[in-house]
Amino acid sequence: MAKASSKKPRDIAPTDPMPARVDPCLATLVDKPPKGPDWAYEVKWDGYRLAVHIEPGRVRVLTRGGYDWTGKFPSIADDARRLAVKTAILDGEAVVLDDKGRSDFGMLQRALGRLPSPYEAGAIVFYAFDLLYLDGHDLRRLPLRERRRLLEPLVAGREGAIRLSEEVQADGDEFFRVACAHGLEGIIAKHVEKPYRSGRGEWWQKITCKRRDSFVIVGFEPSTVPGHLGRLLLAARQGNDLVYVGGCGTGWSNDLSRELRKLLEGTATKSPAVALRRKAAVFVAPVLVAEVEYRAWTDDGKLRHASFKGIRERADDGTVYQLQSTDSRTQGD
């Protein structure tokens, strides 16, 4: 086997043109973390995937879809100019952290939105987890461990808008358990010997923490397929009232979709149990409860990525999700 060169890429004459854009590597959702010494783990950030392009005379901040959002992330662009590089492409996630250091997608939306918000654009942090190009050299052909070795000196230990997404060498199951216990969205597992490949593949895997609770069914939206269910409308308890918390449109088979539609039509009412107007909605008496698995709550108090898991009669409100005046539902998991 040939001996690896001791020179760093930036010490070798530049040979690679800088790509105008790189399609990101995307993680595949799996149920359990992979095991073995070739896997490293990171926190799964709940934000916007971005690529920071540091070019001669300018910095560009590009979204996953290739849109130029440099103007939306001025603090990230300004901090990128301070990095000790001539040219580089950093891959990472823009987030806003809550008071416990967890990324919160709702807070990020407010920081970027037009509505009044206590979170300014300067509160947004970019966690860099990969380095795709550096000073004239395309690094995508290198294994992840080499790309991380070059990334870490550039951003490790920084307290500005650009920081390092720490890599954890640990037991994947234990790291996942701890991440979920601390209210994080989940973890990412990456194969340290693989090059950077655009698109979704098995070399990056994501394992997400999920919540599961019961909500009262207050209506449904019909499917475009006749006789089928399109979306359940759900509510949680708040004191003696029901509060609409969003919908659920996945988790049932075709047969179950028809059965649920028929069941709910039998409880249809013209008096909604919640303050909600939906043109195509059919409201039902609040007598059935849906068991729902979901990822988190949105900033406006709606379920995020909800999936139907079961249905039962509303016999005991003790199991129905109860909203509190100081509810932490906007804290993303």
Quick description:
The protein is α+β, with helices and mostly antiparallel strands and 333 residues long. The chain has helices spanning 74-80, 105-112, 144-155, 172-181, 254-265; strands at 25-29, 39-43, 48-55, 58-63, 88-95, 125-134, 137-138, 162-164, 186-191, 199-208, 211-222, 229-238, 241-248, 282-283, 288-294, 296-297, 303-304, 307-313. The radius of gyration is 23 Å and the shape is elongated.
Secondary structure layout plus pairing:
Elements: E1 25-29, E2 39-43, E3 48-55, E4 58-63, H1 74-80, E5 88-95, H2 105-112, E6 125-134, E7 137-138, H3 144-155, E8 162-164, H4 172-181, E9 186-191, E10 199-208, E11 211-222, E12 229-238, E13 241-248, H5 254-265, E14 282-283, E15 288-294, E16 296-297, E17 303-304, E18 307-313
Parallel strand pairs: 1-10, 6-8
Antiparallel strand pairs: 2-9, 3-4, 3-5, 5-6, 6-7, 9-10, 11-12, 11-14, 11-15, 12-13, 15-18, 16-17
Descriptive tags:
single chain, 333 residues, alpha+beta, D-amino Acid Aminotransferase, Chain A, domain 1, OB fold (Dihydrolipoamide Acetyltransferase, E2P), 6-stranded mixed sheet, 6-stranded antiparallel sheet, 15% helix, elongated, disordered N terminus, disordered C terminus
